[in-house]
Amino acid sequence: MLYGGICFITDSRFRQYTVEETVRMVLDAGVKWIQYREKHLTRKEIYYQAERLRKITEEYRAILIINDHADIAFFVDADGVHLGQDDLPLNEGRKVMGSRIIGISTHNIDEAKKAEYDMADYIGYGPIYPTSTKEDADIPKGISGLQMITGTVNLPVVAIGGIKLESLEEIFMAGAAAVAVASAILGAESPYNKAREFVKIIERLKNEKKV
Prior knowledge:
Elements: E1 6-9, H1 19-28, E2 33-36, H2 43-60, E3 63-67, H3 70-75, E4 80-83, H4 90-97, E5 101-106, H5 109-117, E6 122-125, H6 142-150, E7 157-160, H7 168-173, E8 178-181, H8 183-186, H9 191-207
Helix pairs in contact: 1-2, 1-9
């Protein structure tokens, strides 16, 4: 199970709480892996917010991954970077990040195989279900698509896209190493309570050896 089995992805469009407040809530709930994703600020603003999140995650001894920006990930001393298909190539990202974590977003077998060949540390795969978080999201892959990927590559696969509590068991049974969750937590009345529910179910599945 990769970094506790759940990655919380930030999204500043959900304005109920600040990004920093929400990150503290999910860390208090037991999440151990944060991905900072920000599409609406300047790079300077992203840098300073990433710096603040690094301090918070260090308090909790949690993993911090920066989305898209390898240079910012390096300079704030994050644990790694997550790159999309249109971002810096993985081999160039490795020159910046060294031995730190590099994850790659993938949407099909060819992209997953390429990520494995380029020695990514993990891949994100999806969307598994319909999602409202990404406006340009692809057609949902479903559990069959996830099984195809986990059966093809030897990298940890993080399932993303429309992940809900009731879908966790089938996702892990399909071979996922973790799930990435944004809106299901961010859209809840209490992000802490919702994140805690995710953590508890994943812990139960682990104890039942379904993870």
